[in-house]
Inverse folding.
């Protein structure tokens, strides 16, 4: 793993474990096992580091989730089966300091215009992924419904992290409720 990647992962760990306020160059360099000079070489500003850390996390998460979704799509799953599979996926993806850091960075973007563009791109990527899932499930107007799915999953992520729920309790039921509301009326 390159020094740059080590720094990005360390930044996410520091943010996830201690908060954005604890993310100093020294703390991140120490957590990454690199020199302070190496950190400032790769990331001249804290804003650069925050933006790249969020971007890297989201890109990796979307690649992981997309692979999972593609596997499900190839299985020819019915919309009624999808919620349980989504819950299983959430259990596999939704723990660790990186998840806390992801949410914290999105909240920080509300106060930091320099990070906002990266946050917007991230949310749009999640929306596209949700739209692809809904389309694969035969849900009409998938693009219109995707933001509600993303918002629900973000809200449930906050709930899981706040309560320590590692079972993703309620995810399948919430997803099922949204899917049923999006299905065409007979």
């Amino acid at each position: 793993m390159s020094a740059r990647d080590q720094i990005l992962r360390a930044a996410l760990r520091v943010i996830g474990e201690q908060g954005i306020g604890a993310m100093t160059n020294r703390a991140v360099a120490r957590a990454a096992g690199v020199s302070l000079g190496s950190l400032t070489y790769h990331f001249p500003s804290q804003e650069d580091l925050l933006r790249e850390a969020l971007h890297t996390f989201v890109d990796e998460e979307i690649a992981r989730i997309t692979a999972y979704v593609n596997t499900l799509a190839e299985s020819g799953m019915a919309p009624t089966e999808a919620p349980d599979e989504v819950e299983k996926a959430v259990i596999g993806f939704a723990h660790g300091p990186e998840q806390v850091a992801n949410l914290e960075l999105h909240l920080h973007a509300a106060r930091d215009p320099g990070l906002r563009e990266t946050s917007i791109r991230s949310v749009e990527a999640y929306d596209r992924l949700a739209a692809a899932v809904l389309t694969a499930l035969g849900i009409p107007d998938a693009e219109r419904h995707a933001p509600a799915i993303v918002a629900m999953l973000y809200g449930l992520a906050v709930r899981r992290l706040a309560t320590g729920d590692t079972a993703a309790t309620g995810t399948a039921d919430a997803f099922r409720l949204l899917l049923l509301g999006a299905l065409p009326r007979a």
